[in-house]
Amino acid sequence: MSDERRFTLRDLEQYDGKDGRPAYTAADGIVYDVTASKMWREGLHVRKHQAGTDLSGDILLAPHPRDRLDRFPRVGVLADAPARAPEEPPPVPFPAAFLYRMHAHPASVHFPVALVVIAVLLDVVGVGLSVTGWFGGREGAAWFCGCAAMVNLVLGIALSPVTIVSGLVDWKYQFDGALSRLFKWKIGLSAVFVVVGVLALAAGLTGGGAVYHALLWSLAPIVLATAFVGGRIVFPAG
Amino acid sequence: MEDTVTENKKKKAAEIRHMIEVARLAIPKEREAREHYLGASRKAPGETSRLLFERLAHEEEQHELKLRAIIRHLQEELDGLGR
């Protein structure tokens, strides 16, 4: 049994540094005497942290290292410090671990993006050729571009489930499934992409027309915005 | 007066959410770095390099744990603002 003085949180409150009282503060279960520090006048540190309290959490956000507190006299331990085990990363179950290990999301994510953008470009060229009548017009190169656009669209939409599922796995196990601003955008845009993509596909397979072209062309900004948000997640410093 | 308090709370919450997001995006980087060093330690040709890479891998692991602790603390602070 240690001879060190044991403080409760209530004991600690008495040492708030005000009105000439000593200023004690606690971090990670250790109580320090900071009374002599100029940075703790009247028990207040940087106008934010009050002596007489457990600052274990706040010290994590401090601009100085944790061991700065070790410069001050240690006067005891906090008896009722909440036990806080380090938060370990969650275990990854088998199928998800396989996708994660194989880097399935980064490997697959470029296919739907590239295929859909190529589909849109081919379709734009096809419509242009059809309107101008160049290179054989509607029955010539325009027809070929239209078919090629459709093939790219089919492949892009067909591959998107792999990308989306592997992306969800990465989100869950790399980022703890946190719904922060970027992930809300990424998931929302992916859902819009699937809906618009399937509608474009359906419109294209049932005769095409202006609705098909409008839906297909709208996929380009959607898929590029999704890719942009993905880039912000993977390369946050960029 | 109440509007100012609410406005300050909103600003504080936005700042905390930003800090959480930045910390969370950094976790996979720490993990990748750790796996990189662990891989290097497994292939290390000698004892000195193996120990160096193991130490670096351990440091990356500690960074991840620290980031997780920071996120947990910030999340508690954020939850407290909502009360």
Report on the architecture of this protein.
The complex is a heterodimer of chains A (238) and B (83). Chain A has 238 residues and is α+β, with helices and mostly antiparallel strands. Chain A has helices spanning 9-13, 94-101, 104-108, 110-132, 141-174, 181-205, 210-234; strands at residues 6-7, 24-27, 30-33, 44-45, 49-50, 74-78. Chain A has 2 domains: 6-78, Cytochrome b5-like heme/steroid binding domain (Flavocytochrome B2, Chain A, domain 1), CATH 3.10.120.10; 94-234, no CATH class. Helices cover 53% and strands 8% of the residues of chain A. In chain A, a hairpin with a 3-residue loop joins strand 4 (44-45) and strand 5. The mean pLDDT of chain A is 91. With 83 residues, chain B is an all-alpha fold. In chain B, 93% of the residues lie in helices and 0% in strands. Chain B has 2 helices and no strands. Chain B has helices spanning 2-42, 47-82. In chain B, helix 1 packs antiparallel against helix 2. Chain B is rod-shaped and about 65 Å long. The interface between A and B is medium-sized, with 18 and 23 residues.
Key structural traits:
heterodimer, A: 238 residues, alpha+beta, Flavocytochrome B2, Chain A, domain 1, 2 domains, 4-stranded mixed sheet, two-stranded antiparallel ribbon, elongated, B: 83 residues, mainly alpha, 93% helix
Write a brief structural summary.
The complex is a heterodimer of chains A (238) and B (83). Helix content of chain A is 53%, strand content 8%. Chain A has 238 residues and is an alpha+beta fold.
Low-confidence stretches of chain A: none
Q: Identify the biggest protein-protein contact and residues per side.
A: A-B, 18 and 23 residues
Shape of chain A: elongated
So how many helices of chain B? Answer: 2
User: Residue-averaged pLDDT of chain B, rounded?
Assistant: 92
Any idea what the radius of gyration of chain B is?
19 Å
- Note the gap between the termini of chain B: 18 Å
| Total of helices of chain A | 7
User: Portion of residues in helices of chain B?
Assistant: over 70%
Described by strand count, sense and barrel closure, the largest sheet of chain B is:
none
Structural domain tally of chain A = 2
Question: What integer is the average pLDDT of chain A?
Answer: 91
Poorly predicted residue ranges of chain B? none
Number of strands of chain A: 6
Give the amount of beta strand of chain A, in percent. Answer: 5-15%
Rg over alpha carbons of chain A: 30 Å
